[in-house]
Amino acid sequence: MSDKVRSTKLKFKGEKTKKKRKHEDDGDEGPSRRRRKEEDNEASETWVLPEEAHEIRGPTFIMHPSDPSPICITYDSTRGRIVLQSVDKDKTEDSPSPSIVERTPTDVSQVWVVTRVAGSPTINIRTGVGEGKFVSCDKHGLVSADREARGPQEEWTPVVFPDGMVAFQNIYEKYLSVDEVAGGQLALRGDSEEVGFGERFWVKIQNKYKKEAHAEERKRKDGLIDMSAVDEASTNKIYQAWGAGKSIVSVEDKKELKRAKKEGRLAEALLDRRAKLKSDRFC
Questions:
Q1: Are 155 and 125 in contact (CB under 8 A)?
Q2: What average pLDDT does the segment 207-234 reach?
């Protein structure tokens, strides 16, 4: 029988394991740049902290430094609901507790999938297990994960603070928070006016997607990605337009378009009339 210990690190289908490369720290480099170099040498599936909001994408692990035990946001696919789970639930007396920033997911239910439209400051948070439900928040602050389609209530704006923690703001300009409900249990709410302890989360993403975010940002700054050239039809299709991809506008927009077209025709007719009179005058 082999004495080799089997790794318990959570991996995802299709990911390739890469060997870590040793490197020497340059004493003249700052801590931020040194950390960036270390992350560049890490394997793609390594969990790292985001430094900017646009880096939050792909598989995402969300934790809160609750007391006495930190918790992570998980999804119970059997009951179809969000659950706040202690990250120390499998802790034993013999196993030391790592710091919260050193934590990584141990179950697929703890992993969420973050997507965003290119150039948009908002993100969508979808379950990583089950049928893929989006995290939403209504105007009363009720947070759930039971919708298969995304809309305004499924949009979140991440805010990254200098200490590395993240807050999530919804379309009502309120913040996601961990709140104590009846019975002493903890639940997610989305009606906080300000960011305090309950509204700050530790978020970990995979190194692969952080690198992709930086590559896209460099292309955007170099002008290789043009975010200004957007037409109405393509924008509606990108933002999930209904009606089989047909561009649909409101009644007010239609009236404005008709009025603009009418004024345009009148202007053209007036110019033609002036040109004709000028021509007749010199005949």
A1: no
A2: 70
Looking at 139-230, which runs of residues are DSSP E strands? 143-147, 157-160, 166-169, 175-180, 186-192, 202-206
Crossing angle between the packed helical segments 31-40 and 207-221, to the nearest 10 degrees: 110
What is the span of the domain harbouring residue 160?
A: 32-221
Q: How far apart are CA 193 and CA 190, in angstroms?
A: 9
Task: For 36-77, write each residue's pLDDT tens digit.
Answer: 555 555 678 899 999 999 999 999 999 999 988 899 999 999
Three-class SS state of 103: coil
The pLDDT, as a whole number, for residue 118 is: 72
Q: What CATH number is given to the structural domain containing 211?
A: 2.80.10.50
Q: How many domains does the chain have?
A: 1
Q: Is the dihedral of CA 126, 127, 133, 134 positive or negative?
A: negative
Is the residue at 255 inside a domain? no
